[in-house]
């Protein structure tokens, strides 16, 4: 379906060409197997240490393929504060899987650092169709009730809970935005998510 893809790897800044085998359709749910796709990208990240030449790649065609793949995997992005935010279209398995997916695209789970950013992301969620619960950065798995960003270990500075949230029960240790309640926050299990859940990545904005 797609011949080429450019992936900005945060550690190596690698430009690569890949073929159709990185996008595998899961026949049971008719969506791309995101885990396989990301695992292959991370494998190439480990193997490559320099920019690879774009042999037989047309720059114009390559850009078109990037845009097409982005449209398959993510809803249209939000550009805010020098960063780009994207919400996934396809199902994912757990928080670790979401973190790995964001890393493969050079980013991380969206980290809300202040109320202005929080407002921007709530508005972004509100205008994004077919999305209700969206995982963002934040976990209290280490100490119940103490919410930290997974990437940095720093405290989550903005917590704004939906009614009867957080539940503080079981394994509900991951932070999500909930469209049904205006983008307010809720805690959900990190190791299993609803089929209709999404995640939000934060990436450097590429001009």
From TrEMBL:
SUPFAM superfamilies: C-type lectin-like. Residues 80-191 form the C-type lectin domain. The gene is 106064722. The keyword Signal applies. Keywords: Signal. It comes from the Eukaryota. It comes from Biomphalaria glabrata (Bloodfluke planorb). PROSITE patterns: C_TYPE_LECTIN_2. The lineage of its organism: Eukaryota, Metazoa, Spiralia, Lophotrochozoa, Mollusca. Residues 1-17 form the signal peptide. This is C-type lectin domain-containing protein.
